[in-house]
Amino acid sequence: MFKLLVLSCLLALVLPSLAEVGWWRTGQFYQIYPRSYKDSDGDGVGDLNGVTQQLAYLKEIGVTATWLSPIFTSPMADFGYDVADLYNIDPIFGTMADFDALVARAKELDIKIILDFVPNHTSDECEWFIRSENGEEQYKDFYVWHTGKVVNGIRQPPNNWISVFRGSMWTWSEKRQAYYLHQFHAKQPDLNYRNPDVVDAMKEVLRFWLRKGAYGFRIDAVPHVFEVPADADGNWPDEPRNEAVSDPEDYTYLQHVYTTDQPETLELVYAFRDVIEEIDAELGGDDRVLLTEAYSPLETLMQYYGNGTHLGSQIPFNFNLLANIHYNSDAYHYSELIHNWLDNMPEGQVANWVFGNHDQSRIGSRLGADRIDACNMIILGLPGVSVTYQGEETGMTDVYISWEDTVDPQACQSNEQEFERLTRDPVRTPFQWSDEQNAGFSNASVTWLPVASDYKLVNVKKERGVALSHLNIYKQLRALRDEPTLKQGDVTVVAIGPNVLAFKRSLTGQKSYITVININDDVESINLDSVFTSISSQLQYVVVNDKSVRRKNDLTFANSVLLMPKEAVVLSTV
User: Fold this and answer.
1) Which helix (H) or strand (E) holds 28?
2) pTM higher than the cut 0.90
3) Full set of structural domains in the chain with CATH
4) Residue 380 to residues 225, 384, 472: CA-CA distances in angstroms?
5) Residues identified as active-site
6) Beta carbons within 8 Å of 102's beta carbon, 6+ residues apart
7) pLDDT tens figures, 294-331
8) How far apart are CA 558 and CA 499, in angstroms?
9) Considering the chain, what is the average pLDDT of its residues?
10) Are 206 and 269 in contact (CB under 8 A)?
């Protein structure tokens, strides 16, 4: 008999009544990288009209809200994360009229549009920076400037801080005769949030887009927004070495104790939430939301929700699974990471589950293509918010792109030996709609990034017709989320030995649903009766993947569930 090794700490999380919560608390969020979603005008780059054309697909897969990576006017040094005009659409994506049409069509389909908001920096081509560099009184302190220090007659940056994109965090301006700070690319100067005028200016940006019809924002790179305050002489300390890294140009060469996760960051998030509440009161309708991107310690992330007196981000992204689950992770590791969030979440808040985004290797490449369905079962089966990056529902994988063809600045600023570790291009390739030219993404002769070679096998059109395709399994899982048990029910999460993860969703008076995932390559026989209470002696298969020998609606005994290698299923009580 298979020996059950069950984590001693089981979780029973009770969600509030739906009547007391906002739409987002059980929402399905979907990230669109517009450059790669759908090209409507044949230039090889995706655009807003392409997104509008494909909104019906989002409705098909049950998306509640979609957030768009930046679409604002930009010289594209970092593909839109270097914003030159925070109030306009970049021509490569379309016009403001195209944005209005997108919002209108989304409203017809009851899909909410979330915009990417980049508070840490602007482009060096932004009018604010140009005026700051010129020393204009109103803008001279909009950015972080320092004259540097002179060592042996040579002017040098003020300290040793290293950019995320390699090299010094400081770049000299001949015009201003000073260095400006940039935590990322040299064309992305950091705004100075210790200047209240900057805070006010960015709040106005939020108000503008909310009034244009956006239902909230994903806030980019939040931990980088503040640096430690300068001392009485206007200087900042050097950051300590990370002795494990020997490359002095690499971001990880230093421990970033003075340039990330400063306490003022949380106060800024709370101030941005105040704007959300203000516009909710002004415009009415459904709640508007903040999603915050932060790869920060868990105790810091929990404060993003709020502090008891201030509301914060409704959805501080939970990157626990994305960042920490690896190919060889066992069921205990999965369970531990799920518990970490649920057990530490402030009372009354809601969890969110993320396995992919535009900066990280895709699920199928990182964890294995035979675990794609399992990961989608986790994010769609656990309580709270699910977040899907475009293509994870169809099983898209990373595309190899050579050093010569790499365009991601994070990689281009490195070298031929290091670029594969740093490049994000492989996860940003065009969405695979069909087996037609360029996977149905574009009719251009060349696309901005190459289309995956497997597009004739992995695409929406083909998968619609394959019963157990990743897409159809995803759609079944999404449909289950409309069940009261999955919207309001408790959850118990366990690891049954090193190979099997299981969790039960239950609600009084309703069916219980049990997700069971065999993470590895052994055949497993498990006794769910010994793990979960109050389940029927027989269980029914509700969702199966292509590794299963069982079919939907088959029955099994709870005390002897047989799992094939990499099998992932959802069972219900009968």
Assistant:
1) strand 28-32
2) yes
3) 28-118+318-470 (3.20.20.80), 122-192+230-259 (3.90.400.10), 490-573 (2.60.40.1180)
4) 32, 9, 13
5) 220, 293
6) 48, 49, 51, 52, 55, 113
7) 999 999 999 999 998 999 999 999 999 999 999 999 99
8) 18
9) 95
10) no
